[in-house]
Amino acid sequence: MSAKRKDRRGRILKTGESQRKDETYMYRYNDTQGKRKYIYAKTLDELREKEKLIQKDLDDGIDYSGGNITVIELVEKYISQKNGVRYNTKVGYNFVLNILKKESFGHRKVNGVKISDAKTWFIKMTNEGRGYSTITSIRGIVKPAFQMAVQDDIIRKNPFDFKLDIIPNTTKKREAISEEIEKKYLDFIISDNHYQRYYDEIMILLETGMRISEFVGLTLSDIDFKDKSIKVDHQLSRTRNGVYYIEKTKTSSGVREIPMTKTVYQCLQRIVANRKNPKIEYMVDGYSHFLLLDKDGKPKVALHIEKMMQRSVEKYNLMHEDKLPSITPHVLRHTFCTRMATGGMNPKVLQYIMGHSDISMTLNVYTHANFENAVKEFEKMNFVR
User: Fold this and answer.
1) From 250, 275, 298, 368, active-site residue
2) What totals of helices (H) and strands (E) does the chain contain, helices first?
3) pTM (2 d.p.)
4) Residues 6+ away with beta carbon under 8 Å from 76
5) Residues 6+ apart with CB under 8 A from 173
6) Known catalytic residue: 156?
7) Residue 330 class from Cβ within 10 Å (0-12 exposed, 13-18 middle, 19+ buried)?
8) Predicted confidence (pLDDT) at residue 383 exceeds the cutoff of 70
9) Which residue among 7, 20, 65, 276 is buried most deeply as judged by most CB within 10 Å?
10) Residue 334 catalytic?
11) Cα separations (Å) of 21 from 18, 24, 25, 26?
12) What is the share, in percent, of the chain residues with pLDDT greater than 70?
């Protein structure tokens, strides 16, 4: 019996596996048409993960090497290689897959899809009532799936590599609220017997710029009244099935300490003083003693505050002729960033407070200059009008 082949670390290699001179690994196999194919990897574990995907395709009779698979199968293959993604990302993947399964386009063969076909599909979905943001989400998954096929030499060109200007952009741009609208809203919150209890939560969002998931994830240990700082290093979310879970901040830049304004300091003190300590503190992935609790003593999640703000605006608009625009936690984040930017805060400092990994996000997405801001800048520079 011939000796079994091993790699340089003494591990037994399977049929088709080999270690190259540069210590990387190779696997050779025959596709469904009998053609010899090769894949490569830096480690043996990585190689065998790729082998599993290939074997699954071969077992299913899928001819990936010839592009003779459907768009659905291609997207499923792309998604299967995305490990360790966030819960909401997984939800997004399933959302797109469900749409593809309902669309005839999803059942087309990959090697027969042209750019004109992709454009026609987007236009069709737009005419059927699909929103611009939905189509953007679909493109955000289908395009890299086809790019994977290009990189694997399955197809020569990505049919989704085009600007999305073939359909109208119907998304509403999130705008920072003016100081006048802010005053009307806050005056209403303070005066309303029901909503006045949420004033502190609204003000903290407005004067820290925190993401709502970061805010609801705060624990008592994250609040430092001595140094007047708020530590942000995680987010709290909840699945559709009601399961709480902790995630890291959106990016590594999201880990930061936010200084408390005088108002935020006072609001946090009231929240801590009025917090009803439950008999058993709710524990989520090692975190407990959450700052914000619901009526059952469980941690609040984003939906609690989003719905509260939505209903408060609706109530105001029922009672007043001058209507308020949509005001959400994310609008308050926009508003904070815009106020700080137009107020002259150092852009790099603002980037840090917002938790942005790229300063272009701070300056181009979250700041909304208008005529009023321009006038103030003229006055600061002593320009005569």
Assistant:
1) 250
2) 14, 8
3) 0.70
4) 97
5) none
6) no
7) middle
8) no
9) 65
10) no
11) 10, 7, 9, 11
12) 89
Cα gap 102→100, rounded to integer Å: 5
* Contacts with 121 (C-beta within 8 Å, 6 or more apart), sequence order: 103, 105
Task: Catalytic residue, from 211, 234, 256, 334: name it.
Answer: 211
Is 333 tagged catalytic?
A: yes
Burial (CB count <10 Å: 0-12, 13-18, 19+), residue 297: middle
Contact call for residues 269 and 225 (beta carbons, < 8 A): yes
The residue from 256, 304, 339, 356 that is catalytic is: 356
Does the pLDDT at position 245 exceed 90? yes
Tens digit of each residue's pLDDT (9 = 90 or more) over 72-94: 999 999 998 888 788 888 889 99
> Quick count: other Cβ atoms within 10 Å of Cβ 336?
21
Catalytically annotated residue among 77, 238, 333, 334 = 333
pLDDT tens-digit readout, 157-206? 999 999 999 999 887 766 789 999 999 999 999 999 999 999 999 999 99
Cα separation values, 11 from 4, 23, 355, Å: 10, 13, 45
Q: Which of 143, 330, 352, 368 is catalytic?
A: 330
Q: Is 330 a catalytic residue?
A: yes
Distance CA 160, CA 163 (A): 9
Annotated active-site residue 289? The verdict is no
pLDDT at residue 369, rounded to an integer: 55
Q: Is 13 exposed, middle or buried (0-12, 13-18, 19+ CB in 10 A)?
A: middle
List, in order, residues 6 or more apart from 319 with CB less than 8 Å away.
none
